[in-house]
Amino acid sequence: MRQPALYPALHNAVLAEAEPMHLAFEQLADFVDGRLSGEPQQFARDHLSQCQQCGAAVDDLRAFSHAIADDLATRRKPAMNPPPSLGEKLRVFFASSWAMPVSVTIALLVFGLIGWQMFKRDDSRIAVVTPSPTPTPMMLPTATIEPTATPNNLLAQLNDGATQFALDAQGRLQGADEWPERYRQLAQQALQADRMSRPAALSGLGSASAALMGQGQESGFALIEPAGKVVLTDRPVLRWQPLAGAQSYQVELVNEQYETVAQSEALTSTSWQVPQALARGRVYSWQVKASKDGETVKAPQPPAPLARFRVTGQKEFAEIQDARHRFGSSHLLLGQLYAEAGLLDEAEREFRALQKANPASPIPKQLLAELRKLRR
To answer: What are phi and psi of 156, to 5 degrees?
Structure first.
């Protein structure tokens, strides 16, 4: 009988099939017998905790060891020698003359183990490609597309900083999509060349030209500004023409009840800034007294009225400041807001910048013409 040759054949087969990444047969057998210690034992434990193939081989070897251990126990006499290793068990078992049926069974078991390992190895190398399901196109809601304005149906077009505004024949404004609705309306009114309404802030101030012309000073001693206008700052600078030969000047500022609000010391200059903040939305009047050769000369001279100005209201001031911060590059918007608040000088400055950017457009010219009407 050639039973003893079966063990080395099985041994070599397991070694031949084992890949470098798996434990050797001797390592598996020593691990089953508990003969490993220290780093080899820890290495085997770490590997078996991650490798299903070697773990299955250990389980099979343990089952095989238990199967032959019972059989060998009936033929070995009790002794004080240490228990045989798995390799010794295999040699003794296959050397027995009556173990053929069991050895054949075990051989089949081991060959089955080897075949299973080969199957697992090959199976792990085959990439299983699962066909991806063809995605179903998602139906997006149909958006309503606004017709794009073409040069043929444009009523007006204007360059304003980095923005280009366009107004088509249907009254649709392009270029101000991110603006609040109120600002969009202001831009649309400008492109449509709508007439400007006289701001309420200009009421009761008279015209600037009338205030200056009414001074009637042959010597040229006259007020310059502010007169008949709205000012943005609550601490305006008051300016006047010099009086020839005057030694000093004194400015007096009164409110609507003609109560003195501020008065300067004797000045040699021809300008003076109000030292304290004035109430917003209120009207103020002022005059200058010049001292010359012991005499006092006033501007404006009675019976001409005092020069009046209004400080921009708080609401208008806050809106303008916000627009400066958010849309500071838009001359069109700032000009419209200034004009609404009665700040005609500031509005003119913005519209002239718009005219410079659009020399061939009639829109800035129309806006400046509307401002001239408001000054009358």
So the answer is: -155, 150
